[in-house]
């Protein structure tokens, strides 16, 4: 099944319910084959990143969004494991600080966007400001619509100044989240990952699904598409994000800077 079926470039007719979080459209014959493919893609992506960094001209922003336990951290560890730290940066957005709250909600986000040659991965993002804020009624519908417009304009400005934006919604089911939370509770070595607020937010599952659907509908464009990544299977999730990244690099075609003929005359004593 092609990635095009999961790339959302327009909100028209988009419904999250049409995507099964338990499906494995990118998977092969078995899990071992999928893991081998992830390793292969990770190596290929590492090579592409080296060229992208050396080119030092364009910028790449990857946005990972999803419910608690959807695997944002795991995706970073699997897909971007081989990348040169010089050319990649992962940014996690928590609750805004008083300093950040004193400014517009996009201020802290703009500070973290990639510079030339850099890949930045957002673990959560500016979309929290139209998700949790909407679910809990901290902003009304009119403000939410204004923020959709502002986010579209913000992302358009980034793309027009050389940033490629790839947005992935890691789509897990409520049952799978339950299993993952229970696994954290059952294993003392995973207790550090457990947050009681996850249980409180879980009670708003339907409201979050509605908020995600509305946000994806309002902010999907050909220049800044969303990808719906079925994520009940961790292996499939990682494989699909790796395939998405391979597709992005194939389209960007990064190239090393042209050689400098004057260097041929230099000698190293």
Automatic annotation (TrEMBL):
Instruction: Give an example GO biological process.
Output: polyphosphate metabolic process
Question: What are the Polyphosphate kinase-2-related domain coordinates in residue numbering?
Answer: 30-248
Matching entries from Pfam families are given as:
PPK2
Identify the InterPro entries for this entry.
P-loop_NTPase (IPR027417), Polyphosphate_phosphotransfera (IPR016898), PPK2-rel_1 (IPR022300), PPK2-related (IPR022488)
Which keywords are on file for this protein? Answer: Kinase, Transferase
Q: Which spans are transmembrane here?
A: none
Presence of keyword Transferase: yes
GO function term, MF aspect, one: polyphosphate kinase activity
Family statement:
Belongs to the polyphosphate kinase 2 (PPK2) family. Class I subfamily.
The protein, known as: Polyphosphate kinase
């Amino acid at each position: 099944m092609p990635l095009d079926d999961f790339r959302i470039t327009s909100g028209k007719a988009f419904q999250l319910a049409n995507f099964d979080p338990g499906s494995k459209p990118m998977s092969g014959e078995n899990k071992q084959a999928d893991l081998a493919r992830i390793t292969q893609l990770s190596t290929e992506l590492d090579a592409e990143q080296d060229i992208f960094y050396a080119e030092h001209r364009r910028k790449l922003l990857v946005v990972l969004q999803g419910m608690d336990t959807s695997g944002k951290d795991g995706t970073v560890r699997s897909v971007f494991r081989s990348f040169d730290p010089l050319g990649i940066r992962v940014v996690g957005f928590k609750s805004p600080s008083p300093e950040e709250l004193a400014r517009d909600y996009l201020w802290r986000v703009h500070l973290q966007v990639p510079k030339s040659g850099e890949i930045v991965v957002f673990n959560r993002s500016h979309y929290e400001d139209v998700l949790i804020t909407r679910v809990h009624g901290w902003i009304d519908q009119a403000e939410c619509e204004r923020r959709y417009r502002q986010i579209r304009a913000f992302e358009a400005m980034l793309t027009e100044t050389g940033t490629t934006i790839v947005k992935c919604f890691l789509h897990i089911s409520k049952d799978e989240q339950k299993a993952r939370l229970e696994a954290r509770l059952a294993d003392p070595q995973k207790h550090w990952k457990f947050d009681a607020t996850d249980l409180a937010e879980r009670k708003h599952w339907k409201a979050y699904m509605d908020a995600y659907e509305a946000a994806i509908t309002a902010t999907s464009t050909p220049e800044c598409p969303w990808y719906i990544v079925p994520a009940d299977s961790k292996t499939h999730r990682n494989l699909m994000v790796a395939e998405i990244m391979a597709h992005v690099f194939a389209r960007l075609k990064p190239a090393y800077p042209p050689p400098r003929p004057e260097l041929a005359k230099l000698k190293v004593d």
